[in-house]
Amino acid sequence: MTSKESELINIDRSVTCKVKMGSRDLVQATGKGTLVVETQHGKRYIKEVLLVPRLDENLLSVGQMMEHGYYILFGGNKAVIFDDESLNNVIAIVTMEGNRCFPLSLESITPAARKASVTEDSWMWHKRLGHLNFASMTKMQQKELVCGLPILTEVEDVCAGCASSKHHREKFDKEQAWRVSYPLELIHTNLCGPMQNESVGGNRYFITFIDDYSRMCWVYFLRNKSGALNVFKKFKAFVELQSGYKLKKLRSDRGGEYTSSEFEEFCALQGMKRQLTVAYSLQQNGVAERRNRTICEMARSMLLEKGMPITFWAEAVNTAVYIQNRCYTTSIIEKTPFEAFTGRKPGVKHLKVFGCLCYTHIPSSLRQKWDSKTGKGVFVGYGSCEKGYRVYDLKTEKIVLSRSVIFSEDRAWNWERNVMNQNHLSLNIEGGEVEGGNSVENLVAAHPDNIEHCHQNSTAGELAENIDNDNSQQSSPSSTPVKLKTLQDIYARCHMCIIEPENYQEAFGDKAWQEAMKEELEVIEKNNTWELVERPIDKPVIGVKWVYKTKFHLDGTVQKHKARLVAKGYAQKSGIDYNKTFAPVARLDTIRTLIALAAQKGWKLFQLDVKSAFLNGVLKEEVYVE
């Protein structure tokens, strides 16, 4: 308890208890707040500090500190305060004085600095939580519904992203709705789309499933409405196995994806009860309709706040559902949907601002000695099956999963000019500092003409390479090179399907496969692989078959057609026809020794391929094939 009101934040004036002093006098407390203390390890918060007027000394309760997660060890005339149960982070060491008291000197920050810091943290967490409203954020922190969320204060200023994305008409009054008593008793579902822009994965729809008991939400993305039934089958199998409950009722609108004969037949076979809305009465499916609206508003806020292309709408929707499952909702009491469904309290320490610039670690196996150890990308979500972050690689234009990521949450990528919005960049990587003076962004700033007429699909790495090559002279718009793709590059990126023959009858109709089979038979005869004899009566005979394979160049073009005549070895039985199998391989130690010797002597090394080398093997056993 303390008498200094200026040292506290978030003061609750409704607390008016009485405190009995040493003189047995009762003093009225005027409130309860939180004390912010600066330590060597950052800010620490002491909650539920009573504000008692006319108190000469500040009193710190050991029991109250332990209730708030601190650990205190007494011994050797000292008291050591630790941050957590690991006993690694020492917050303070207090020495006992002659009166057997432990005086602790705390350096509290000034109210102005504390207010600015808390306001800044509040805005940052507002963005991290997908522009969640401040009332829900404060509720999550006060009720400790998640782990890792600091003390936040509601900011009266208006968020531009929320104003442009969430502004809507006032809600209508509604009566109390009926609620179920256990998970999966009732599932709300709705399909949203089609979108004007395809997602990165080529989808135009998304479908949501909401559990009425926990308000846990699952989202799936579709190319067409016809895929709704397959998605529902996957969802039903997943949630029933994970929760141990059976899905009993399904509530949806009367869309064709839900009223098809296949969908109704599947629900009837599973024994599920259908609840369909009356025509033009979307309010009867209000839970799913309102959830889709909330998801779209949160996704739109995250996209517009970072200026991301609309093609990332699916990534934003997936991230919005991930965040909402871990945020406070008025539909359930003092729990998040994640905790209500799984029984575990979620953590939010790993949350980052959607669309921010980030740097992923490149494994040593994918780079050379002096290559950069990081790749620049944009954060687009969280892994569903993997414990990592989803990052859009700006160089390869693909989404990768990584757990070693450095985030720059206050920066964004300029998608129109393919540069970072801020020119200066300073990162502490591997103990060294990388200054923005040598970055791609500063090179771009020195050559603005190159940016104006650069091809829209060029990446930052390609842009820096073009500028370095032309660094000696100023480039004009007419001389700026335009990056074009050849037909081979386009064909290499296409999903081409080469159908290889399954048997001799299919291959015989193609001249290319005829030449490949003819070449294989000539090699077999040249190596004297077999001798033609009469079919023995008392010996097992193994059949043969043709195996066909198409070889390609690196650019995707066909290199050759390869045909092999192989014996059906699976017809032989171990212990009867053979005792053991083996394959001669080159010993790597021998190859390394040969290469080291050639390097020391300065010899030249040549590589060759012995065609059909496997036909040179000598068999001691008699094997008959037909």
Tell me what the structure shows:
The model is unreliable at 108-117 and 423-480 (pLDDT under 50). It is built from 17 helices and 25 strands. It has a 6-stranded antiparallel beta sheet with strand order 17-16-15-14-18-19. The chain has a 5-stranded mixed beta sheet with strand order 11-10-9-12-13, with helices on both faces. The protein is an alpha+beta fold and 626 residues long.
> Unreliable runs, pLDDT <50, ≥5 residues?
108-117, 423-480
Q: Let me know the largest β-sheet.
A: 6 strands, antiparallel
Q: How large, in whole angstroms, is the Cα Rg?
A: 35 Å
Total helices: the number is 17
Strand order, largest beta sheet: 17-16-15-14-18-19
Principal-axes shape call: extended
Mean pLDDT across the residues is 79
Structural class comes to alpha+beta
Our measurement of the CA-to-CA distance between the termini, rounded to an integer number of angstroms, reads 96 Å
Estimate the helix proportion, in percent. 25-40%
The portion of residues forming beta strands comes to 15-25%
> Count the strands?
25
Structure at a glance:
The protein is built from 17 helices and 25 strands. It has 626 residues and is an alpha+beta fold.
Highlighted features:
single chain; 626 residues; alpha+beta; six-stranded antiparallel β-sheet; 22% strand
Secondary structure topology:
Layout: E1 8-12, E2 18-20, E3 26-28, E4 31-39, E5 42-51, H1 62-67, E6 71-75, E7 78-82, E8 90-95, H2 111-128, H3 134-142, H4 160-166, E9 186-192, E10 205-211, E11 217-222, H5 228-243, E12 249-252, H6 256-259, H7 261-270, E13 273-276, H8 286-306, H9 313-324, H10 337-342, E14 356-361, E15 374-382, E16 389-393, E17 398-402, E18 405-414, E19 419-420, E20 427-429, E21 432-434, H11 440-446, H12 448-452, H13 460-469, H14 487-493, H15 504-508, H16 511-526, E22 541-542, E23 544-552, E24 558-567, H17 588-601, E25 624-625
Parallel strand pairs: 9-12, 12-13, 22-25
Antiparallel strand pairs: 1-4, 2-3, 4-5, 6-7, 7-8, 9-10, 10-11, 14-15, 14-18, 15-16, 16-17, 18-19, 20-21, 23-24
